[in-house]
Amino acid sequence: MPPIRLRFVQSATDHRTLPELDAEVAFAGRSNVGKSSLINALANRKHLAHTSKTPGRTQLLNTYVLEEEPTLGIVDLPGYGYAAGASKRVRRGWQQMIETYLIERTSLTMVVVLVDGLVGPTDLDLTMLTWLGSHAIPHAVVATKHDRVKSSLRQRRRQELARRCHLDPGDVIWVSAATGTNLDLLRRAVLAWLELP
Ligand code: GDP
Predict the structure, then answer these.
(1) pTM here?
(2) How far is ligand 1, taken at its centre, from the CA of residue 20, in Å?
(3) How many A from CA of 145 to the centre of ligand 1?
């Protein structure tokens, strides 16, 4: 399976200023979950999605489109733990930006909620999943950092993670950006969510 060739197009605070797309998949997760590494790995690029070290872009909706199908895209949402040091007012602003995007964006076909495979689902992750469910927004759970968990512990860890997210263990895609585990599976899923064969 070839990488998904992605091109960065725009960052925005308001989804209404983003390009109109036919379909897009959003990636959400707390900061440090491995979101930038995963987007880079899906595209097989080193510096496409900048890691948390890049100030500025991390609090924005960052949009990428498929090189081959520029009406289809991936949106990288701000990491939700990032706001810890910010004022309440700023945090509320970010939350509102993300919620408005998730509720109003008509081209959004799937929200991928990343959960740290080493740490397991945090309260913030579970709040996000519950919120998405209560708004009937299609979402999927992808666990990260598969390589960080010993192989003898993986089955148990997958079961626990799935149970806490109210999913069947088979519904969780567990990837590693570092070793490439299950990246093809996720690439196929992303293309299917974008309604590409
Ligand atoms: P973000 O804040 O969600 O964008 O997370 P980053 O992609 O910046 O990753 C956070 C940290 O986790 C970095 O130190 C990464 O190198 C590390 N990391 C991300 N994905 C993996 C993975 O699959 N395996 C391992 N071992 N480390 C990872």
Answers:
(1) 0.94
(2) 30
(3) 7
